[in-house]
Amino acid sequence: MKLLVLGATGPTGRHLVDLALRSGDSVTALVRNPAGLGDLADRVTPITADATSPRDVSAAAAGHDAIVSALGRGNSVRADGLFTRASAAAIGAAREAGVSRLVWLSSFGVGHTYDWSSTPQKLIYSTLLRSLYADKAIADESIRSSGLDWTIVLPTRLTHGPAKGTYHADDRLPMKGNPSISRADVAAFMHGAAHGGEWSRRSAVISD
Ligand SMILES: NC(=O)c1ccc[n+]([C@@H]2O[C@H](COP(=O)([O-])OP(=O)(O)OC[C@H]3O[C@@H](n4cnc5c(N)ncnc54)[C@H](OP(=O)(O)O)[C@@H]3O)[C@@H](O)[C@H]2O)c1
């Protein structure tokens, strides 16, 4: 499969690219700074671009089977419009290039899933993560109504732990406390979703 990966220099994105390459996919990495790819740099096709630029993403998308996003704001708790702008760019690019598959990393607790979250989760989502979640909610809704073959991935708190492969994934999961899942497992789920039809036009809540 030919994947266009957004956010390939981030910790989840790096796992995703590594996994995709090991499974035989070819990967184009749309990155602001190719140096951030480190040892992945010579195994992917890097495109230096901004994921919020419709022109940049459209230029990169042609010829791919899927667009996969692990974009994020790193340690910042301010969205700065990243998710709304990048989702608009990705949707436009996908339509223009005829790439129907879009796998998008969001967060559990965004949009309607806020109501499903535990009391400790709600406290974090409505305060610290408020700006990020508001922007993600708009982005996720625009993807759901895009007409594309989308999957929105909604993980709980992310860790840097190893892939366990024993996580839960469903349209809805019961929540208690503030559960987590490793970025490596999230990447594996996203890669599997891009390759299969099971999560087509569905939002997947995933957690350990
Ligand atoms: N932390 C948690 O507990 C948690 C829980 C659930 C979901 N999530 C979500 O999971 C996602 C991934 O998080 P993460 O910690 O693995 O990654 P991250 O550190 O947020 O990495 C973000 C990636 O996005 C890229 N990026 C940001 N703005 C860009 C732009 N304008 N153009 C191109 N690339 C851009 C960054 O590139 P640069 O290298 O150039 O900065 C980096 O590759 C995020 O959306 C996050 O909100 C996090």
From TrEMBL:
SUPFAM superfamilies per the UniProt record, alphabetical: NAD(P)-binding Rossmann-fold domains (SSF51735)
One Gene Ontology molecular-function label: biliverdin reductase [NAD(P)H] activity
Pfam (any one): NAD_binding_10
UniProt xrefs under InterPro entries: NAD(P)-bd_dom (IPR016040), NAD(P)-bd_dom_sf (IPR036291), Polyketide_Oxido-like (IPR051606)
Taxonomy, superkingdom: Bacteria
Ranges where the NAD(P)-binding domain occurs: 7-192
Record protein name field: NAD(P)-dependent oxidoreductase
Organism: Streptomyces cyaneochromogenes
Lineage: Bacteria, Bacillati, Actinomycetota, Actinomycetes, Kitasatosporales
